[in-house]
Design a protein that fits this description.
- This protein is mostly helical.
- It has helices spanning 2-15, 53-75, 93-110, 118-134, 167-178.
């Protein structure tokens, strides 16, 4: 009976919460204690076009370093009319968005948690498609440099905003059209 009481006390002690301010038995190994607060989660990545001010500039600087030091030397094929490039690509918002998404995917897929095939998946699912879209002959850089000896930069105008009827006009149009027979529009 005495042994059973001692075991019960030991179980109660082990099941109780650790004393506040007490050090973890795993601290010497750089591990958090059991039941302690979880490590803070990394910040959620945000698309670069949603960032403002200094935060956007810092992200664009880091992206530019990755593009200039890694992406272009390894994957930046020759500049031709079929694969244009722009030395001022940072001024093309769509190109910045594509490259930023590609960079975020690269960071995720080179992480050891992505496994041994992580970078293959990045090549197959992200790199090939993004580079093809950015450097397409009719893509966002098509009005820029198509030959290294002729550097050029031009932002192509995008489509105008959608034409939207004013709310009062739409309601009036519905009332006027209600009495008229519909004509097929094949």
């Amino acid at each position: 009976m005495e042994q059973s009481a001692q075991q019960s006390q030991q179980l109660d002690h082990l099941a109780s919460a650790p004393a506040p301010g007490g050090s973890s038995p795993f601290a010497a190994f750089g591990m958090p204690g059991l039941g302690g607060p979880p490590p803070p989660a990394p910040p959620e990545p945000r698309p670069i076009l949603e960032l403002d001010g200094e935060e956007r500039e810092d992200e664009l600087d880091a992206l530019s370093d990755w593009v200039d030091d890694f992406l272009l030397p390894v994957y930046g094929s020759e500049v031709t009319t079929a694969t244009p490039w722009c030395l001022q690509w940072q001024e093309h918002d769509d190109v910045v968005a594509w490259l930023h998404a590609l960079w975020l995917a690269y960071q995720q897929h080179k992480d050891p948690e992505a496994g041994l095939s992580g970078l293959f998946v990045w090549h197959r699912d992200f790199l090939t498609h993004a580079v093809a879209a950015i450097r397409a002959p009719g893509g966002p850089l098509s009005a820029c440099m198509t030959a290294p000896e002729r550097p050029a930069h031009r932002i192509l105008p995008g489509p105008p905003p959608s034409a939207r009827p004013e709310k009062g006009t739409a309601a009036e149009a519905e009332q006027v059209g209600a009495g008229e027979p519909e004509t097929p529009t094949s």
